[in-house]
Automatic annotation (TrEMBL):
Domain GIY-YIG span(s) in chain numbering: 13-94
GO BP term, pick one: nucleotide-excision repair
Name used for this protein in its record: Excinuclease ABC subunit C
PROSITE patterns (alphabetical): GIY_YIG, UVRC
GO cellular component, one term: excinuclease repair complex
InterPro entries attached to this UniProt entry: GIY-YIG_endonuc, GIY-YIG_endonuc_sf, GIY-YIG_UvrC_Cho, UVR_dom_sf, UvrABC_protein_C, UvrC_RNase_H_dom, UvrC_RNase_H_dom_sf
Length: 414
């Protein structure tokens, strides 16, 4: 099938997992969907470059076929996606993660195992026996989706995450029914081990096996007149067959409801910063804004530097400008931040953003001896995808800063 025919491929309006395949039937990319039909259609929208990046555009260009598998719920699609990514390790899934690490659901090696959500880099910080894991399910692509998925599973199979065994006092999760009573001694080690096995079956994508196991267990309890235990099994079976995963569909709903991508999507906002002075005097900072590749002078901002230092400190002045800028919650958030300078300026900006809790990619524009752009440091794909806007923003920031600096100097008495 030719790539241009993928727009017309017929897919069901149901949850599941899709795979983009290349010319040699190799798997290029794996994704999950609330609606397979609408999700795959979204890859042919006009704003794909802005919403997903150049690497996904490249993937769609190379794709020749789409393969799919339906699931009973979005939650099961999340789990199936993770197992398929782990098995096939598609090139473009790895590229999409960039320098971020994957998310995993882990089961610790303890008498009463904890069920935790961890990032890959966190899992391997400590390799001691106390930090080892009995099971690790993943990788999962979205941290927020995974958190919501864990909440859904926990309502069906309550588990321990933070409390201590037999601590006496019930933990908060026990009080709201999300811990089976590990903290109060209400559940034995053997009973809890059975619970962990059930959770592992589900996260391992073995729902059919789990349903058979619970059905058999329900009948066994009923024969022994343990009707309360049989009732718990029955409730779990019903919940598994009627999973309510509304919290997992938000991203897909936004994609499906987008009628006109170019008219309704949020413009890609690049903010560029520069500082101007003469021997450390009359120091000013500026912010310029480029939306979808076009400068928007109405959004430019000036900052007269307040920090007094004995000698010029461009890094300190840049930090002041950024802190003052992000104190304005009413201003729209940037999608990409550009600073003038090298590695030092880029790192200082990233430090400030991290301290402020802002997740924004930072790139820096390095100039040559004639003050011409020589290189863009930082995320390579962002630099390539938005090179035009980055350079326009940087040039505008330099021009605007110099003009503001001259304006201040011109106010001095003759």
């Amino acid at each position: 099938m030719l790539a241009q025919d993928l727009r017309k491929v017929k897919l069901p309006d149901l949850p599941g997992v899709y795979e983009f395949l290349g010319a040699h039937n190799e798997i290029l990319y794996i994704g999950k969907a609330t609606s397979l039909r609408e999700r795959v259609r979204s890859y042919f929208a006009n704003d794909l470059l802005h919403t997903r990046g150049k690497h996904i555009v490249d993937m769609v260009t190379l794709a020749k076929r789409v393969r799919h598998k339906k699931t009973d719920s979005v939650l099961e699609a999340v789990i199936l996606e993770a197992s398929l990514i782990k098995k096939h390790q598609p090139t473009y899934n790895t590229k999409e993660k960039d320098d971020k690490s994957w998310n995993y659901v882990v089961v610790t090696k303890e008498e009463y195992p904890r069920i935790l959500q961890l990032r890959e880099r966190t899992m391997f910080l400590d390799r001691s026996e106390s930090a080892s894991y009995k099971y690790a399910f993943g990788p999962f692509t979205g941290g927020t989706n995974l958190k919501d998925a864990l909440k859904i599973v926990r309502k069906i199979f309550p588990f321990r995450d933070t409390c201590s065994p037999a601590q006496g006092k019930p933990c908060f999760n026990r009080q709201i029914g999300l811990c089976p009573g590990v903290c109060t001694g209400e559940i034995s080690q053997k009973e809890y081990a059975e619970r962990v096995r059930e959770i592992a079956l589900f996260w391992g994508g073995k729902k059919v096996t789990l349903l058979r196991h619970l059905t058999r267990l329900m009948h066994e309890h009923a024969k022994q007149f343990a009707f309360e235990a049989a009732g718990e099994c029955k409730r779990a079976i019903f919940a598994l067959r009627h999973i309510k995963d509304v919290s997992l569909v938000s991203e897909e709903v936004r994609v499906a409801s987008r009628k006109s991508a170019t008219m309704r999507r949020k413009p890609f906002r690049i903010e560029a910063y520069d500082v101007a002075h003469i021997s450390g005097k009359f120091t000013v900072g500026v912010m310029t804004v480029v939306c979808d590749g076009r400068p928007n002078p109405s959004l430019y901002r000036k900052f007269k530097i307040r920090t007094e230092v004995e000698k010029n400190d461009d890094l300190l002045h840049l930090e002041e400008v950024l802190r003052r800028r992000f104190a304005h919650a009413e201003w729209a958030s940037p999608d990409l931040l550009v600073v003038d300078g090298g590695v030092a300026q880029k790192r200082r900006a990233e430090t400030v953003l991290r301290e402020l809790g802002k997740e924004v990619t930072v790139v820096s524009v390095v100039k040559d001896a004639r003050h011409k752009p020589r290189a863009i440091l930082g995320n390579r794909e962002m630099a390539e995808s938005y090179r035009h806007g980055i350079l326009i923003g940087n040039a505008e920031a330099h021009r605007f800063a110099v003009a503001y600096h001259r304006q201040l100097r011109g106010r001095l008495p003759k």
